[in-house]
Q: What sequence folds into this?
């Protein structure tokens, strides 16, 4: 069949990871070749081993996932052909390598286990009936998975930034310093004014208290004047109090 499997071109979360990748689900490509009892398989092979892959004559000869390290290929995602109809309520993508449980179990059903290396890989769809293969698609282009980065290769130093970013950061830092200085100055002035107001109020209170309680020294009282009858020409004179 002329159909070529491919990774979806649209943005998709986890489209290609270190152990999985997504494929578009083909529609109507097997209708003229399939019966209702037929199934569609996905063949996964290392790119350099796809040319030597041979379709299995029966389901019993399908290469399992656990033989990938030695045979460099396996078959998985066995699905009824009706699921590849565009009217079928099926997800628009297939995810290869997302079954982490089956790799540790010795099961006879097809395993869709995580891919062990970045590849590259090639895939194709294979239609199989009761008597073996009936139709197949072309091989996909090589698919390379993401590589996990070793912690030892991560540069701990920050990356260099553009001059514009550095200038903006410097301006923001300067504005922050000026703002902090202004706030501290205002708080200091307010505190200083409060202290000065407190000192002035105390001094005024003390001064008023001193003026209120100060008693000036008493002045000597003037001696009373007394007039006595004297011989003419002498007039009045001050009488002194008798000596004690």
A:
């Amino acid at each position: 069949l002329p159909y070529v499997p491919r990774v979806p071109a649209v943005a998709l979360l986890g489209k290609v990871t270190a152990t999985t990748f997504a494929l578009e689900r083909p529609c109507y490509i097997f209708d003229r070749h399939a019966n209702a009892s037929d199934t569609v398989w996905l063949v996964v092979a290392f790119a350099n081993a796809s040319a030597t892959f041979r379709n299995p004559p029966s389901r019993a000869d399908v290469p399992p996932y656990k033989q990938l390290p030695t045979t460099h290929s396996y078959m998985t995602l066995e699905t009824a052909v009706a699921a590849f109809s565009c009217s079928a309520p099926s997800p628009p993508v297939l995810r290869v390598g997302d079954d982490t449980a089956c790799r540790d179990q010795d099961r006879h059903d097809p395993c869709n286990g995580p891919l062990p290396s970045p590849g590259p890989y090639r895939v194709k769809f294979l239609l199989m009936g009761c008597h073996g293969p009936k139709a197949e698609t072309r091989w996909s282009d090589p698919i390379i998975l993401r590589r996990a980065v070793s912690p030892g290769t991560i540069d701990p130093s920050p990356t260099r930034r553009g001059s514009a970013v550095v200038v903006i950061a410097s301006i923001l830092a300067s504005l922050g310093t000026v703002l902090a200085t202004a706030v501290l100055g205002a708080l200091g002035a307010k505190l200083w004014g409060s202290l000065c107001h407190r000192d002035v109020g105390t001094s005024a209170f003390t001064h008023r208290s001193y003026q209120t309680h100060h008693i000036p020294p008493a002045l000597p009282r003037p001696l009373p004047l007394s007039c006595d009858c004297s011989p003419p020409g002498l007039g009045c004179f001050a009488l002194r109090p008798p000596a004690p």
Remarks:
- The radius of gyration is 53 Å.
- Residues 202-210, 225-230, 233-239 have pLDDT under 50 and may be disordered.
